[in-house]
Design brief:
The protein is an all-alpha fold and 113 residues long. It is built from four helices and no strands. Helix 1 packs across helix 2 and helix 2 crosses helix 3.
């Protein structure tokens, strides 16, 4: 039986989606982020195919994956303390900038326009 390239690609992408859905921990990485290098490694291990990093990116984008950076938040974040800082400290930090005054663009002739 001859399988067309389209059918093989669909099977591979479907199987790759299933592998990625298992998460990085299932493939030996401790954190929960997929990187292009890790996806490349999974493709090599699971499907015995070699892709470049750019090839992996193009494959993922073509099939609906997007590049995302996880939002980083402290585990012990105190939202009330953050809100207080924004109200009290941040306005003082903004006001500490040098005031805008008309000046000269010349350091040697301050009176020149």
């Amino acid at each position: 039986m001859i399988v067309s390239a389209c059918t093989r690609r669909t099977f591979t992408v479907t199987a790759l989606d299933a592998e990625l859905a298992k998460g990085p921990a299932a493939h030996g990485w401790e954190d929960r982020r997929w990187t292009l290098s890790r996806v490349k490694t999974v493709i090599g291990r699971r499907f015995h195919l070699t892709y470049t990093i750019q090839g992996v990116r193009k494959l993922l984008v073509r099939n609906g994956w997007s590049c995302q950076v996880p939002a980083r938040r402290a585990m012990a974040r105190d939202d009330e303390a953050v809100a207080g800082w924004v109200k009290e400290v941040w306005p003082c930090a903004e006001d500490s900038r040098r005031p805008v005054e008309p000046g000269s663009s010349s350091k040697t002739k301050p009176a020149s326009p």
